[in-house]
Amino acid sequence: MRETINKACCPNCGMATTSKDGSMTTEEQQLRIENAKLKAEVEKLRTVIGKYPPGPASTSSCSAGNDQENRSSLDFYTGIFGLEKSRIMQIANQAMEELKKMATAGEPLWVRSVETGREILNYDEYVKEFSVENSSNGRPKRSIEASRETGVVFVDLPRLVQSFMDVNQWKEMFPCIISKAATVDVICNGEAPNKNGAVQLMFAELQMLTPLVLTREVYFVRYCKQLSAEQWAIVDVSIDKVEENIDESLVKCRKRPSGCFIEDKSNGHCKVTWVEHLECQKSTVHTLYRTVVSSGLAFGARHWMATLQLQCERLVFFMATNVPTKDSTGVATLAGRKSILKLAQRMTWSFCHAIGASSYHTWNKVSSKTGEDIRVSSRKNLNDPGEPLGVIVCAVSSVWLPVSPNLLFDFLRDEARRKEWDIISNGGPVQSIANLAKGQDRGNAVTIQTMKSKENSVWVLQDSCTNAFESMVVFAPVDITGMKSVITGCDSSNMAILPSGFSILPDGLESRPLVITSRHEKSNDTDGGSLLTIAVQILTNSSPTAKLTMESVESVNTLISCTLRNIKTSLQCEDGSS
User: Fold this and answer.
1) 480 vs 384, 450, 470, CA distance in Å?
2) Largest Cα–Cα distance in the chain?
3) Which helix (H) or strand (E) holds 167?
4) Using one digit for the tens of pLDDT, what is the confidence trace for 174-211?
C-alpha cells in the first residue's frame, strides 16, 4: 500500500506526482510521509484543542530565531498544549535538580544488588526524596525502570555535548538504540558555542535489534546546562501536558528526569554518569526477550553507556594518525584505512536501521521448514547509490542458544570458522586480506575476507563490534574492483552495499554477580545463554518496479534456516535451542 501511495501521490500534499519525483531517495519519500503525518497530527490537535487561546509571546532571553518563529513556537505550546514557555523552563529546571541528585547520591537512594552488582533504585526513598505524586491518573498500569551507570568516555566535552544537542549526531552515536529522532521545536537556543541553557522538545523511537520487541516512542524536553567550569548536565523529561494532547497510542513511555552528568577530566576524557528513568505502559513482550526487557537492561543506562563508549572509541581510532602496523594490516595508507572504516560504519548503520521493529518496516511472520519464527519485510531502492537498486528483501529470526555471548561472538567473527556456517563459502577456505582495529578490544575490528571457489572469488567486508551489553557481526559481499579503490583511499559513499549479520545479547538471566569467577560446580546453574538475531538481506530484482515473489521469500527463509542449523551444529547445541 505504501508503495502505491508513493507512486501515485505526493506525500506532502496528496497531489499526483510528476516525473521529477523519481530523483527522490526512498528515505526522502519516507521522511516526507512521516512529515505529512506529523503535520496532520498537529492540525488535528489545533482543531481539537481550540479551547486554548494563543498566549502572548514572552520576551525571554531564550530566543528561537526571528519574531515569526517565536510566535509560531509559542502558539504551538500555548495554543495546543496550554503551556507557557516559563512553565516549560520551570519543569526543565526541576528535572535538572532531580538529575543532579540522582546522579550523585549513594545509599539509601541507590542500593547495589548482591546478585548482579548493578545499582537498584530504592523507590520508597525516591518518592520520599522527590515528593513524587502517584502519576497513574487512571492511566493503564505502568512499570518503572530505573538504572544508573558510570564510565569514562574517550571524547572531549564540547563534542560530547554537541552529540546530544544535534539530533542527527545523536542518532549516529546510538544507531542500535535510536531508530528515529527529531527535534520537534527549539524552545531556547542556549548560548553559543556550547549550547549552555538550550532547551528543545524532542521525539525519539527507541528499538532493540530484533522485530520481536516493539519500539518505544517518547516525547521529551531536553535541557543542557553548564554547572561549573568542568561539569555539565543534560536532562530529558517528559511533560504531562504535552502527552495528554497527543494520540494516546503514542504515549506508552514517559521519561522521568533522565540523562547525563558529565565531568571534564581533560586530555580528551570525560567521566559520565548516566541515569535512565522510564515509566512505561505494561505490555506483553515476546517470551525470548521478556527477561532482558523487564529487568530494564534493554533500554537501561548500561546499554546507553556501553554504546557511547564504543562509538567514542571508534571515533578515536578513526581519527588516529599514529596507528601501529599490527592494527592496520593489509592497508598501506591512512586514507585507505579511513575510507574502509567509513564504509564499514555506514554498513553497520544500515544493518541497525533494517532489522528493528520501527514503523519504517512492515514485518510479516513466516515459519521455516525447521520451525524457526522468521519475519520478512521488503523495500524498493529507487536511486540510493549506497545500496543496490531494486527490490530488497530482509528476513530476520531471533533464537535462544545455550552458549555464552562471548563464545558465540568469537565464533561468528572468526574467518577460520566462517565456512562452518556461511552458505556462500560452500565450505571453502576463507582468508582475511585486511584487518583494521577500531577499538581496544580485539573484537572491535573491520576485516576484508576473501572466499575462493573454482568459479570465482568473493570479497566480504565485515564489521564486528562488542561492548558490555551487546555484540554485532555485520558483513556484506563487495565489488572487488570498487573495494580495491576504497583500500587506496577513494571515497566509498557511492559504493552499493547490502549488509546481513548477527546481533548477540545476553539472555538476561543473571544468576550471579557480574564478576569473573571460577565455573560453578552445580551443573544446573545457568551459565548465561545468548539471544541471537540473524538478519539476511538480498536483492531479489534489480528493477524497482518488480513485484516481490514467493520464491524470493522462500530463498531468504532457506538461507536463515540453513545458517542457524549450521551454527547450532558447530556449537553442539541442536536440542531445545530455539
Assistant:
1) 20, 10, 31
2) 77
3) helix 167-173
4) 999 999 999 888 888 888 777 888 999 888 999 999 99
